[in-house]
Design brief:
Strand content: under 5%
Order of helices and strands: HHEEHHHHHHHHHHHHH
Number of helices: 15
Number of domains: 1
Number of strands: 2
Strand order of the largest sheet: 1-2
Helix content: over 70%
Length: 325
């Protein structure tokens, strides 16, 4: 019920109420109105790595991404029509379609490619750098100049990425046929695309109903990936498990998730919305351990802590300063 209402209800919170804490008459702090969306999105996106891994083995990276966004578009477009928002989508289709390639088409293909070689947990930890890239891009594009604390966070965060990627720095193909080094670079390129799309959404699509942005972006990604997917379509038809995984990742991890994500950007702002990637690795590693038998090493946990610390500083969620007096 909560997910359904998230998809059919446009955001009604003001920007000031979204960004500030609320309290009751007794002065006790109440949960932020976007907190449930934050937790729900973390759990859903954490599972996307698992389902993408299952499907990409049989479909290949680009067909996996293409079918995923096509399923999401088919799920979301009827909701846009039922809500009477189709004219809004048609009016802004160019910008929304472009967001689709930046926030869905290209990143989904990159992560599907990476998951052929590296674990879901490692992919999700690399995905946690999204807020860091978002802060860096907002600095240059939106002139959101960071202070000393945020600059230090960028340095710390990128150092964590370097430490994490060092163990996978080989560009020699493994048993999957994909070199781990290229897989890591693909994940980081996907994170750059996510960061660009967040600033683009903030600058050009603020105030647009999240359902319109979510649906239009999936249509745009579907159009952009259609021809490459046909070219790379597997010669042997994938099995039912791969199709079922794509159905779940298309409807739940993409269709429903992007409604929640764009609403989170609107209600909580891009830095908080992007910080959902801090929690995603927890769910992704848990799913990978339970269903795929993957392991999480102490080195991965240490590097993840460094990355999360850096991204927290770089987005302003964690601040270090001198006390007065």
């Amino acid at each position: 019920m909560t997910v359904k209402s998230a998809g059919l209800q446009a955001p009604v919170l003001s920007r000031s109420s979204a960004g500030s804490g609320a309290s009751d008459g007794a002065g006790a702090a109440r949960p932020q109105p976007w907190a449930l969306d934050f937790l729900l999105l973390s759990a859903i996106w954490g599972s996307s790595f698992l389902f993408t891994r299952i499907s990409t083995v049989e479909f290949g990276p680009i067909p996996t991404a293409a079918v995923r966004v096509a399923i999401a578009a088919a799920f979301l477009l009827p909701l846009v029509w039922l809500r009477g928002l189709l004219p809004v989508l048609i009016k802004h289709w160019r910008k929304v379609f472009l967001i689709g390639m930046l926030n869905s088409g290209i990143p989904f293909a990159c992560f599907a490619f990476a998951l052929l070689s590296i674990s879901t947990g490692l992919s999700a930890i690399l995905n946690a750098t999204v807020p860091m890239f978002g802060a860096l891009i907002a600095w240059f594009w939106l002139k959101d100049k960071p202070g000393a604390s945020r600059i230090a966070g960028l340095i710390i965060g990128f150092a964590g990425v370097a430490l994490l990627a060092w163990d996978k720095a080989t560009f020699k193909p493994d048993a999957s046929g994909v070199a781990p080094g290229w897989a890591v670079l693909a994940c980081l390129f996907a994170c750059v695309c996510y960061g660009i799309s967040a600033s683009f959404t903030k600058r050009y699509l603020t105030g647009m109903p999240p359902l319109v942005t979510a649906a239009g972006s999936q249509v745009g990604a579907s159009v952009g990936l259609a021809l490459p997917a046909v070219y790379f379509w597997p010669s042997q038809m994938p099995g039912s498990a791969a199709w079922l995984a794509l159905l779940v990742v298309g409807v739940v991890c993409t269709g429903v998730a992007y409604i929640v994500f764009f609403r989170l950007i609107e209600n909580a702002g891009p830095p908080r919305a992007l910080s959902v990637t801090f929690v995603v690795p927890v769910f992704a590693a848990l799913y990978g351990w339970v269903f795929l038998g993957e392991t999480v090493t102490p080195w991965m946990l240490l590097c993840a802590a460094v990355i999360v610390c850096g991204t927290s500083l770089s987005t302003g969620l964690l601040k270090v300063g001198r006390r007065a007096g």
